[in-house]
Prior knowledge:
The complex is a heterodimer of chains A (383) and B (243). Chain A is 54% helix and 22% strand. Chain A folds into 2 domains: 3-50 and 250-381, no CATH class; 57-241, no CATH class. In chain A, 40% of the residues are buried. Chain A starts with a helix and ends with a helix. In chain A, a hairpin with a 2-residue loop joins strand 9 and strand 10 (173-181). Chain A has helices spanning 3-13, 15-52, 89-94, 127-133, 154-160, 196-203, 223-233, 243-285, 287-295, 300-333, 346-373, 377-381, and strands at residues 57-61, 63-70, 73-81, 85-86, 102-115, 118-125, 139-141, 149-152, 167-170, 173-181, 191-195, 208-209, 211-216, 237-241. Chain B has 243 residues and is α/β, with parallel strands linked by helices. Chain B has a domain at 31-48 and 79-225: P-loop containing nucleotide triphosphate hydrolases (Rossmann fold, 3-Layer(aba) Sandwich). Chain B has 7 helices and 10 strands. Chain B has helices spanning 46-53, 76-86, 102-107, 117-130, 146-157, 176-191, 203-206; strands at 2-13, 20-31, 35-40, 61-66, 69-70, 87-90, 164-168, 195-199, 211-216, 219-225. In chain B, helix 4 crosses helix 5 and helix 5 (146-157) runs parallel beside helix 6. The A-B interface holds A 1-3, 5-6, 9-10, 12-13, 288-289, 292-302, 375-377, 379-381, 383 and B 47, 50-51, 54, 56-57, 76-77, 80-81, 83-85, 89, 91-93, 95, 97-100, 104, 107-112, 117, 120, 156-157, 160, 168-169.
Amino acid sequence: MNIRKLAWKNLFRRKSRALFTGLGIFLGIGTFVAISSITMRMEGAVRDKLDKFGANILVTPRTEQLSLGFGDISLGGTQVAHAQLTGTDEKSIRSISLSERLRMVVPYFLTAADASGKNLVWMGIRPKDIAESRPWWKVQGAELSAPGEILLGSEAAVALDKGPGGTVEAGGKTFRVAGVLHPTGEKEDGMIIAGLDDVRSLAGSPDGVTFFEVAALCKDCPVEDIVAEISTKLPGAKVSAIRSVVESRKAAVDQFRRLGLGVSAIVLAIGGLMVFVTIMGNVQERTREIGILRAVGFRRRSIQSLLFWETGWIALAASVSGGVLGSVAAFAGAPLFGAERGRIEVVPILVGTAIGLALGLLGTVPPARRAASLSPIEAIRSL
Amino acid sequence: MSFITLENVSMTYGSNGTRTTALSGVSLSIGEGEYAVITGESGSGKSTLLCLLGGLQLPTEGRLVIAGTDLSTFSADSLAGFRGRTIGFVFQAYHLLPYLTARENVMVPMATDKKSSREKVERADVLLESVGLSGKEERLPSQLSGGECQRVAIARALVHDPPILLADEPTGNLDSATGDQILDLFSELHGAGKTILMVTHNHWNIERGTRSVLLRDGRIAEDNPLRPVHRASRLAVPAQAGA
Lengths: 383, 243
């Protein structure tokens, strides 16, 4: 007979109370491990999905603001490009060492050209790139699929009074309207979107590129590294991360993580409170027993030790079983939350077990103190 | 020679306005090997005196010396250690732990001892045998009679071979025949050299002692030597291994 055995025996005597004490920790740790595991899986999934949603790096020609004036008279200013971008620059971008992180590199060519008597901006893009670079476009009619086809922005369609199946004359060629974009609130609403080569030929610039949009998967690398590498490859270009996109993605992932931690913290706090309440009740119930133990020579430390062992056994069992259950739940439920497939995450189980054990022991501190301060006289007086 | 000494001891409970004096200026000296029976009406201060003599609490005034140790300066924790070594308690309601077997109940005071399990089991079995419970070591208190439970409680009180046994109405829950057997056991322990302090209401129990102390209103009203009416054969309390 020792303190550990005494604690163990007492647990089996009060099975329902032990179960109730463990239930708080079990649920708390189960939830914590499930949320942590799913969050870990989802962080990657959310980031990947966000990274796939449009570009986060813009490559444009480096320009310089040139002020024009004569004496005191200002004639405004103009931007002068140091060099033009060309189609071959795409290869340079794709040759960076972090190229496996580049999900897409999409060249655009913009030019102003007459379209059936209206001067409109034409945007050239490879039809195959549209799905990835402009996934939010909704088209009335058909997608752009062949040379000689165009899409009309919603405002351009109104200005030209054309719809799917109509034609537009430009540069001596006839373009067939494949479809009309639903309003996007962006500049493309007033543009005509055509194949990259069609727009280049309209402008007489067979290899011209106005800008590149680059989508980089930045799960494990800062986007700044990719920007720096592209800048090195294209010294005449201005390469900039679209901060708002990067930050909003980071914020979305952080927010998700915080939500998970917040829910876990609340559940754990409730679990801790359950431990505190049940152990405190346990001490109240066992006043006489504690008094007897004190009367037969148990020191305060021994009484505390007894309660800590009791809760320790419960907390350990509840934490491990809660951790395993949470992990299994996360494994099974991860696909429902957007993770492609579940995985047993060991770290949350270990952290959860440690937290559960700590929670159980911390929740026992006030009741153990109270128990240790009970006078053995209580045992005599309870006669 | 005095083994337990109370010098002008007073015990007051409560705070100003609701103060209750349980003992007032009590002086008592009990020699080693005495069998003192403490009696008195309800509220006379018996329980308080028992708590003081058992080192369960300290007096608010006066001096308390047990086995040559002045307890006045002891902390609650030091008192617990002292009790464990020096005093064995036997309660009216036995106060066995219901989820432990007879053997395990006897082993409870040894839970913090640095002894092997085997040593503890051997010690418990020897004690249970000495109180006539051989063969019932594995029984739970619910499977034992009242007298057997009280024997287990006595065996538990003897675990550390304390020089003092403190009994609070040890026959209060037993029929007269079983009570007599328990009193015989106390007489045997007394014969084996233990100092016994017994609180009781029962006049028949008084006759078993060597000294009768009557309390009234928190003071000692009578303190008389007695000639025990019954002395059973000497019970040899097994000494602790290594003691």
